[in-house]
Amino acid sequence: MLGGIQPQPLAHASDGTLPLDVVEAAIKPDDAHFARTRLLCLENTWHGRPMPLDYLADARALCDRRGLGLHLDGARLFNAAVAQGVPVRDIARHFDSVSVCLSKGLGAPVGSVLLGSAALVAQARRWRKVTGGGMRQAGILAAAALHALDHHVERLAADHDRAARLAAALSALGVEVTGQHTNMVFVQVAPASTASLVEHMARAGVRLSPGSEGKLRLVLHLDVDDAGLKRVVDAWAGFRG
Ligand SMILES: *Cc1c(COP(=O)(O)O)cnc(C)c1O
Questions:
Q1: Fewer CB under 10 Å: which end of the chain, C or N?
Q2: Which Gene3D superfamilies match (predicted)?
């Protein structure tokens, strides 16, 4: 409402990309009846999937050709870079602006940053003030974020490895694993037994937040080590749904 923005969600393809022909078809004609189409927003990773690098280049080309800005919701940008074995710059360079979460996988206690040109960040600071988002004495949090950037990026590979091991272990228990990408594992359980699974796991000290219709997303991060992984698998193995 504050930005006068009218979002237009588009369906993802199964590889997590927004097909660029669908994006292009959604660009509104220059007509007073329509909102002006100004910005394409992508998310990387999406449901844990890193976006193909050549897709990002193609998206950039489309935005250049049609006069759109390109923003990345890169909450898990570092997971994508580590999984693809590229410097984060190889992903970020296609975008005009990027947001990154320093908590989540990177393990800082709180915090996200918006990256862009000096002019964009100056404008963003103004909007942050307008929306009451300013925070004083935030340096202590910034220090934790710098620590995360210095020490917790390469280790994301360990989360990805644990996610693969968790997926394999749950599959071996007969759990329906519907996907595993980077640090995320998706499983489908019988909707009727979800509540008893959540209760059973809670007794073992593992808290699950059930999604709708028995869909669960399990996410690995800095605070889940091999012992934690084992605890989840052992507890699940003891579940008689
Ligand atoms: C967590 C998350 C955000 C928001 O992060 P904040 O820390 O609240 O800024 C945005 N996009 C995705 C995909 C996320 O997972």
A1: N
A2: Aspartate Aminotransferase, domain 1, Type I PLP-dependent aspartate aminotransferase-like (Major domain)
Burial of 189 per CB tally in 10 Å (0-12, 13-18, 19+): buried
Where b means 16+ CB within 10 Å and e means fewer, 103-130 reads bbbbbbeebeeebbeeeeeeebeeeeee
Give the three-class secondary structure for 115. Answer: strand
Q: Please state, in angstroms and rounded to a whole number, the distance separating the CA atoms of residues 7 and 191.
A: 32
* pLDDT tens by residue, 96-140: 999 999 999 899 999 999 999 999 999 999 999 999 988 889 999
Q: For ligand 1, say whether the CB of 187 is within 6 Å of any of its atoms.
A: no
Does the domain spanning 156-237 belong to CATH 2.60.120.200?
Answer: no
* Whether residue 101 has its Cβ less than 6 Å from ligand 1: yes
Residue ranges of domains in the chain: 20-151, 156-237
Please name the residue whose Cα sits nearest to atom 8 of ligand 1.
Answer: 112
Per-residue pLDDT tens for 49-73? 999 999 999 999 999 999 999 999 9
Which helix (H) or strand (E) covers residue 141, if one does?
Answer: helix 139-151
Pick the atom of ligand 1 nearest to 103's CA: 7
**Rounded CA gap, 177 and 124, in Å?**
40
Report field, pTM of the whole predicted structure over 0.85? yes
Q: Is the CB of 193 under 6 A from ligand 1?
A: no
CA distances from 209 to 80, 108, 166 (A): 24, 22, 17
Pocket flag, ligand 1, residue 96 (CB < 6 Å): no
Q: Which residue lies with its CA nearest to atom 6 of ligand 1?
A: 112
Q: Cβ–Cβ contacts within 10 Å for residue 134, how many?
A: 10
